[in-house]
Each structure stands twice: as C-alpha cells, then as structure tokens.
Write a structure and sequence with these properties.
CATH class of chain B: Mainly Alpha
CATH superfamily of the largest domain in chain A: P-loop containing nucleotide triphosphate hydrolases
CATH architecture of the largest domain in chain A: 3-Layer(aba) Sandwich
Mean pLDDT of chain A: 88
Number of domains of chain A: 2
Largest sheet of chain A: 6 strands, mixed
Oligomer: heterodimer
Structural class of chain A: alpha/beta
Order of helices and strands of chain B: EEEHHHHHEHHHHEHHHHE
CATH class of the largest domain in chain A: Alpha Beta
Largest sheet of chain B: 2 strands, antiparallel
Order of helices and strands of chain A: EEEHEEHEHHHHEHEHEEHHH
Shape of chain A: globular
Strand order of the largest sheet of chain A: 6-7-8-3-9-10
Distance between the termini of chain A: 55 Å
Radius of gyration of chain B: 22 Å
Low-confidence stretches of chain A: none
Number of domains of chain B: 1
Distance between the termini of chain B: 9 Å
Structural class of chain B: mainly alpha
C-alpha cells in the first residue's frame, strides 16, 4: 500500500504580485490521509485548484500515477481519478438530494468503470447517500437540496465524490460549518474510505478533529510549505507556532505600544 | 381573525420524478390531459380553421420550432440572440440544393437539417467557452455577418436570393409536416430534459464547476445541445424555404431571433411548453392586430409589456400552478 499515487513537485503560482503558492512539493500514497493546515490566505485552496486543474501553475508539475496532469482541464483530472469537494458548496438546490449525485454517476469515468452495467442510477445514488449518513427510510434523501441543513449539504458533497469511485479525494474544509456531532459521524466515513485504499487530502481549520484521523500534516504559510510531519512534530515546530500565533518580535512591539 | 390563501397539491401522488401511483381513470386523465392539448391542438383543431389561418399556424409552427430550439440552448446556459442564424443557414442549404441541383424536399429537408446543424455548431464552436451575454453577442452578430457576406460576394443569388424553389406537393402535406416536426421536437426535447442527460445539461447552467469536477466535459455537452438546437432551427429554415419557395437574406432577419425570445418570455422560460405556448399566442395575436393598421406594433408592444410585467414567471408556469394546486381561503387565528 505504499505506492505513490500523486506527486506534486515544485509547484508555484502567483496572481499579479501575490505569491499564492510558492515552490510546493509533496507526495501522496494510497490509503493515506494527508492534512493541510495553515492560516487563511496561505494558498491551500489554490493548491487544490492547481491539482484539480482549475488553476494552471506557473511552474512545477503534478503527476498522477506516472501521468503528467499539470494544467489539464478539470474534467480530465476527475476522469483519471481525482475527486474534490468545494469549500463554497453550491449543490443543485432545486433537485432532490439523491439527484445531486446523478451527474457524477453519469460521468464517463463511472460508466467506463462499471462497463455499461450501471443499473439504476437513482438506486446507486441512494446507496451512496446512505453511506454518507443520509437516513434511507426517511424523507431526507428526497428533499430538495434547498431544504437541507448545511451539514447534510457538506456530506452530499462528499457523496458526490464517492460516486465517482476515485483513487484520490481532496476535501476542502469539509468539516467547516458542521456540528460536533456531524463531524463525529463523518470521521468514520473518511476512515472507511482510507481503509479501502483511497488517498485523501484534507484541508482543515478544525485541527483537533483533523489530528484524530491523519498522521501526516503539511503546514502552509504565505504559499510556502513551512512544516511537514506527524501532528505532534508539526505542533512543536517553532515556525508553525509563529504562523499561528504571530512571532515574538511582533508581540513585543504590540505590548510596547 | 385573518384570512390566508392556502395552496394544496392536487391528488396524484408522485413518488419521484415521472413515477406516479395512478388509481383511477380520473387520475390518468389528469396527467394525460395537459400532454394531449398540444397534440390535439396542432393536429386536429388547427386544421379546422380557414386556409388563411392555417397559413398563420404554419408560420407559428416555424417560429415555435425556433423557440423550442432557443429553450434547449437556454437550458444549457447558452443565451441565443441569433436563432435567425439557424433559420437562414437551413433555408440557404435547402434552397441551394433544390435550386441548383433539383434535390426534392424529401431529401433536401433532412440534408439541410443535419448539415445546417453541423454548420451552425462549427460557427459557434470557437465561442462555446463564453457565457451569458458574451455568447449572446456573438450569436447576434453571426447572422448579420452572414447576410452581409452573401450581399457582398453575391453568392447564392446575392440580394435577390434563391427563387423558384419547389413547394410541397400539397397544402396538407406542408401543414402536417411542420406540425408533426414541431411535436417531435417538443416531446423529444422534453424527454431529453427529464433524462439524466438533461439533468447534466441543466447542471451546466446551474454550476458548471460541479459538473466539471464530476468528470464531465461540459464543452462536449454544450456542443451536443448546440447541434440539436441548430438542427431543429435549420429544419425550420429549410421548411420555410420550401414553403415560401424562396431563400434569401430575409432568412437572417432579426424577426427570427427576437420572436423566439419573446415567446419564451411570455410563455415562460425553463420549460419547453412555455415557448411553445408563447409562440402560439404571439404569432396569431400579431395577425389579429393587423386590423388595427399602423397601431398594430403599439398594441403588440403593450401586450408584451403587460404580459412580462403581469406574469414574470410566464403564462405556462402560472397555468401549471393553477392546474396542479387547489387554492382556497382559510381563516387563521392571529395568536
């Protein structure tokens, strides 16, 4: 299970004068959960956008299973097996929840994987929704997305990813806006995906929950990867403390004022 | 005590889209009746009118084809201000085939439909990445550009156009051909809309990022609907060329672009029945108003304004709501 699925090497991106991502490299192995943390504006989402083809990097390469996918269009990147959720969720509000999964199930990737015998897409969609915690026998999966609470919509996004049968899943702040109970019930779903051999990248601000399920964390600040390692290593790193709490010099200046 | 309007859905139970639990003929009729209206209306009731009105209904059907084609593009988030591109291209292809090589309508219509669809798709392919108003601007310009091109190069009869094109063998053939074509396009597109394919198309309009990150190439899907809409529009043009025995620059006129949009606005966007209904209101209305002479356009314009202001959702959605729901006043306690 230690084969490398995704390699990001030396990726940089700047928007005008702002360096959003600066020379970032990392590897992702099958069955691994990598957490990415960092203050707001540190380039985490831009990195995801680069990997998934929504943003073309200025420099560097993204390689997925020996295929160079740098700058390929998003649908191609999903087609080879990288699925993502969006930080700003925008489901198809007027559709019932289970119908939100239909585009994923209708995609060339899923049709290819199932070799034409996909059967009833609605039924498959219901199975997946049950997997992400929608109560099958209730009216919840039939409610239009407009009427669902935020936590369900977040899990609907996760379901949309699972429907694609991906090898890599990138979760962009999945836990944000979820209640503690919802997070607690979502964690086992992610762990189950990991145990099935899917590689997962999680961008999170909720560190406690993240550190429960990941053993490898990357820390970003101002577009650069400033630390990498286990949660304990990362939390003890001075650079990380500075990024999150501010450097001592600044604090001294503030107290001096 | 205060009164409040209560809306209750009418009887038929819907388990999920398109799956009904029917318990009586009454319920079967309830579902079938709205679908029978266009079929019976076009094929049975319209022919009962006089020759003059039958001609009006033929041109109505042509506009309705363009309106239905417009709605398909709208569904996929492509706003077309140039339905006349489809009409003109179809008319010229059928006209040229018939005038230069004597191809009979039975062949020229399908050829013009397919080739016209491909041609229009190719013309719009480079701008498929544009959205909203930017795409609309290009569709507005293309028919103007083509008509000037024909005028300047004097190909295809230049400003005179192609005349002496074969007509249909009889008025009955002509009448039923266009009405059946309209029904096929209408129910075909509706079928498509209800399928998973249609869901993806509507998804592109809603949130193209989500569709792209589902591994679906949205440009390929947009190309497909462009071809379908173009083919239907080109059929309308080819039919029009044979019916009028003429194909020329007027085929690129603004009428063919604006009326489908007006029909969709009056009838109701977001469903294929809306533009169909709108076309069958606007075109006959314009004929009725002929009696008013010069004031015709004034009243026509006023009608459009009142229709759009009074029923912004469109007539069809209004009727459907009234049909599907019982409304009644109930008294509520104000606590």
């Amino acid at each position: 299970m230690s084969d490398v699925l995704l390699t990001v090497s030396g990726v940089s991106k700047h928007f005008g004068g702002v360096v959003a991502v600066d020379d970032v490299s990392f590897e992702l192995k099958a069955g691994e959960i990598v957490g990415i943390i960092g203050p707001n504006g540190s380039g985490k989402t831009t990195l995801v956008n680069i990997i998934t083809g929504f943003v073309r990097p200025d420099k560097g390469r993204v390689v997925f299973k020996k295929e160079d996918i740098t700058g390929k269009p998003p649908y191609h990147i999903t087609d080879v097996g990288i699925a993502r959720t969006f930080q700003m969720i925008r489901p198809f509000y007027q559709l019932p929840a289970y119908k939100n999964l239909i585009p994923s199930l209708f995609s060339p990737r899923v049709r290819r994987l199932l070799g034409g015998k996909y059967g009833d897409r609605d039924a498959v969609a219901m199975d997946i929704l049950e997997e992400v915690g929608f109560e099958r026998d209730s009216s919840v999966p039939y409610k239009s997305a407009r009427n669902l609470p935020h936590g369900y919509l977040k899990r609907l996004e996760l379901g949309r990813c699972i429907a694609l049968r991906p090898e890599v899943i990138i979760l962009d702040e999945l836990f944000s806006g979820m209640s503690i109970a919802e997070v607690t019930s979502t964690v086992p779903i992610i762990e189950k995906l990991r145990d099935e051999g899917i590689a997962i990248i999680m961008i999170e601000h909720r560190l406690r929950e993240l550190f429960q399920i990941t053993d490898h964390v990357l820390v970003f600040n101002f577009g650069r990867k400033i630390a990498e390692g286990t949660p304990e290593e990362v939390m003890n790193s001075n650079e990380v403390k500075e990024a999150y709490l501010g450097s001592e010099e600044i604090e001294e200046e503030e107290t001096a004022c | 005590m205060e009164r409040r309007k209560e809306r209750i859905d009418r009887g038929v139970k819907v388990r999920s889209d398109g799956i009904y639990a029917l318990n009586s003929y009454r319920e079967v009729f309830y579902l079938a009746f709205p679908r029978l209206i266009p079929i019976l209306g076009l094929l049975v009731i319209c022919p009962l009118f006089s020759e003059y009105w039958k001609e009006v209904f033929v041109s109505t059907a042509v506009y309705a084809l363009l309106a239905v084609s417009w709605e398909l593009l709208y569904m996929g988030g492509l706003i077309s201000l140039g339905q006349s591109l489809f009409y003109g291209v179809g008319a010229y292809i059928a006209g040229a085939l018939n005038a230069y090589w004597g191809v009979p309508p039975i062949l020229s219509l399908p050829i013009a439909t397919l080739v016209g669809g491909v041609f229009c798709t190719l013309m719009l392919l480079p701008v498929l990445r544009l959205r909203g108003i930017y795409f609309a601007m290009v569709t507005l310009v293309l028919p103007l550009l083509l008509s000037r091109f024909v005028e300047a190069t004097r190909i295809l009869g230049g400003t005179e156009g192609l005349t002496g094109i074969d007509s249909f063998s009889s008025q009955w053939v002509a009448f039923y051909l266009v009405q059946v074509a309209l029904l096929v396009a209408f129910f075909g597109f509706r079928r498509l809309e209800g399928s998973d394919y249609g869901l993806v198309i509507k998804g592109i309009n809603d949130n193209d990022r989500a569709i792209m990150s589902s591994g679906i190439n949205i440009y390929w899907y947009k190309t497909q609907i462009l071809f379908m809409a173009g083919a239907v529009g080109a059929f309308a043009g080819a039919y029009g060329a044979h019916y009028d025995m003429f194909a020329g620059i007027p085929g690129f006129a603004l009428d063919y672009s604006i009326l489908p949009i007006a029909a969709a606005a009056v009838g109701g966007m977001g469903s294929f029945a809306g533009p169909l209904l709108g076309a069958f209101i606007l075109v006959p209305l314009s004929e009725i108003l002929r009696a008013l002479g010069a004031l015709r356009i004034v009243f026509y314009g006023l009608f459009l304004v009142f229709a759009v202001v009074g029923l912004p959702e469109g007539l069809f959605h209004f009727i459907r709501r009234k049909y599907e729901q019982i409304e009644r006043w109930v008294e509520v306690d104000k606590g």
